[in-house]
Amino acid sequence: MAKTPHYAMVIDLNTCVGACMAACAMENQTPVWENKWRTYVHDMEIGGDNDELIRRRFFPRLCNHCDNPPCMSVCPTGATHKLDNGIVMVDDELCMGCRACAMACPYDARYDVTYDDVDQGKEFYGELHHRSRPSVDKCSFCAHRVMRGLKPACVETCVGSSRLFGDLNDPKDEVSKLVKSGVAKPLMAHLGTRPNVYYISDIERTT
Amino acid sequence: MEGMFYSTQNVWTWWIAIYLFLGGLGGALVVISCLTHMYIKPHKQLVIWANLSSFVMLSVGSLMLFLHLLDHLAIIHVLNPMVLVNKPDAWISWGTQFIVWMMVWSIVYSLPYMLETKFWTKMPVVGTILGLFAWVGNLPQSIHNIIGWLAIINGIGTVLYTGLLLQSFPAVALWHNPGVPLLFIVSAFSTAMAFLLLVLYLAIRQDEDHELRVFYERTDVILIGIELLIIFVFFHFTTYGLESARHTAAILWDDMGWIVGFIGFGLIVPFLIEFRGVTKGWNSAAPVVLAAVLVLSGGYLLRHYFTYAGSYERPYPAVNSIRQHSQAGPVTKVVAVMPSTER
């Protein structure tokens, strides 16, 4: 019997150009007019002192779909829950918007969807709009696409092939190999969250 | 990753600080008044004052939290007692139930004494409602004591919850440590002692309560002393601890509101006033009343600064920050954030 997949994402910071935000926003109908995103790309310069080489880095941020998610343990209603395949989801029907999850998340992955956002979303996204209630939203690894055998929208549209999505339980999967090799590393693993988003740094690339 | 960023949050601010303050104070009031009445000195007026004040405080505090919610209707999920079966790992689940049941049992415990008081029975509407519960006044003493203990247990739970809530956020060194619940528990009982001293000196005003007032003053001096020691431990922890704790230290120990307002006027001054009171005594109630007001103000300031000064450590700048601190070391600066500069 096939093992249940354990989904994870690897992001290569060497090739990221920050093109995924729009695709994610349209797929998941985030309140972009309020600058609220499920995935957010920081544009940073590194170095520059003492005539050093200045490097520019795009740094994407999203829910890390932790194996030990602090946002789930603090959620009083059970709105934040974890699927067997490792994806951490938010149930809009149960979420009361206390924002404890936003306080608990070390990755700043949560944002508010308010009553106003829901109303404005109807105008912005038209008849395709699917949100009906406020919640403290976040990335879902596009679970609705993954269940149909598709990749998350950000992975599908990533022009630099920076984002890889795969199954950690499949030893032949590229994501699984990169994680196992140690080239791709999680953020702030010392907190005990056991994140499932891994990053390849350019430092790793050059050494 | 090359650089780390340190920032505080603007998600839970003074609204939640008020909630935590009133929750801790209200819970401790019920615990102290019921224990006083059952085991130290029977005092019906004190029970009524404390438990009704607690009811009002918890109502206001819960209203602050309720208004802060994004989806107000969904609160029904945590008001349902089954939430303790469905989500026993979430302290907000426990806290909501502790608060609700403490309010219920503390009022039921006070009912027989309210029924004996003309002020309440003659009051329009309230008097009528009290009349419907006249049978509560005829319950045997053993049942009444059990009701008191139900209120006490839920009161202790409420006090504990206000501390454990912040402790359950692992990304912030200031909050995620066992000192926070301890500090909040001591502070809650200290502020409750201060509130009861105000009630005894300004509202009830009976000479026969002298011993009880002295007992509360002595206990409060001890609690403030313990609180000062815990604050010193936090000073050490934040100053010499993790990088995010040191950023918290940079915020707290550079703020006159924290140093002068909370530590100075919220702890040290009332400690000295009450210490003088229990060792040499005062000729009037004014100094103790002043100390009690300062302790109550300090109780709020503690929670205010704790919610504001919790510093997150992240490999990228937060989009929801009110204070940003970039770590020294490899230079990492944000030149722009796509597609605009701020959320």
TrEMBL record, chain A:
Domain of life: Bacteria
Domain 4Fe-4S ferredoxin-type: 54-85, 86-116
Keyword Glycoprotein: no
Keywords: 4Fe-4S, Iron, Iron-sulfur, Metal-binding
A single MF term (Gene Ontology): 4 iron, 4 sulfur cluster binding
CDD domains linked: PsrB (cd10551)
PANTHER family xrefs: PROTEIN NRFC, PROTEIN NRFC HOMOLOG
UniProt protein name: 4Fe-4S ferredoxin
